[in-house]
């Protein structure tokens, strides 16, 4: 089960390094992008098992990047989790409504992240067709 490929899209270098280190320590492989457009391109090329998508990015934001992934047949079904620092109460519903498969709030928990990622991967595998 270990070794799943996680695409991390994050423009803050410290955050990116932290998430990468934690995921590697948890047995995952990563590919990384610091812009939305690069993230979309990497997703097309590598079809990762899961995408952790920062919402606030320097070019297109995470919601637009998600839209591009969903509109392209080869990336439409990839699980994408929004990662956001927005502390607003209704964000979760808003991001799920936008089509994200899940939601992680910053600051990322070093302790919890591997299990959270595993849960998103497992949820995707066992999800019943609707
Ligand atoms: Mg950001």
CATH class identity: Alpha Beta
How many β-strand runs?
5
Write out the CATH superfamily name: Response regulator
Q: Helix count?
A: 5
Q: Roughly what fraction of the amino acids lie in strands?
A: 15-25%
The largest β sheet comes out as: 5 strands, parallel
How many domains comprise the coordinates? 1
Supply the CATH architecture: 3-Layer(aba) Sandwich
Ligand roster = magnesium ion
Overall average pLDDT: 92
First-residue to last-residue Cα separation: 25 Å
Structural class category: alpha/beta
Q: Name the strands of the widest sheet in spatial order.
A: 2-1-3-4-5
What name does CATH use for the topology?
Rossmann fold
Radius of gyration: 13 Å
What's the shape? globular
Q: What is the succession of H and E elements? A: EHEHEHEHEH
**Can you tell me the residue ranges where pLDDT is under 50 for at least 5 consecutive residues?**
none
Helix percentage: 40-55%
């Amino acid at each position: 089960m270990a070794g799943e490929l996680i695409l991390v899209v994050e423009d803050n270098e410290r955050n990116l390094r932290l998430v990468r280190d934690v995921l590697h320590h948890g047995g995952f492989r990563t590919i990384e992008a610091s812009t939305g457009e690069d993230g979309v391109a990497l997703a097309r090329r590598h079809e990762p098992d899961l995408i952790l998508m920062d919402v606030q990015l320097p070019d297109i934001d995470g919601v637009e990047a998600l839209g591009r992934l969903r509109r392209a047949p080869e990336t439409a079904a990839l699980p994408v989790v929004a990662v956001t620092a927005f502390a607003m109460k209704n964000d979760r519903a808003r991001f799920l409504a936008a089509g994200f498969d899940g939601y992680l709030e910053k600051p990322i928990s070093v302790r919890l992240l591997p299990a959270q990622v595993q849960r998103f991967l497992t949820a995707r595998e066992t999800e019943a067709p609707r």
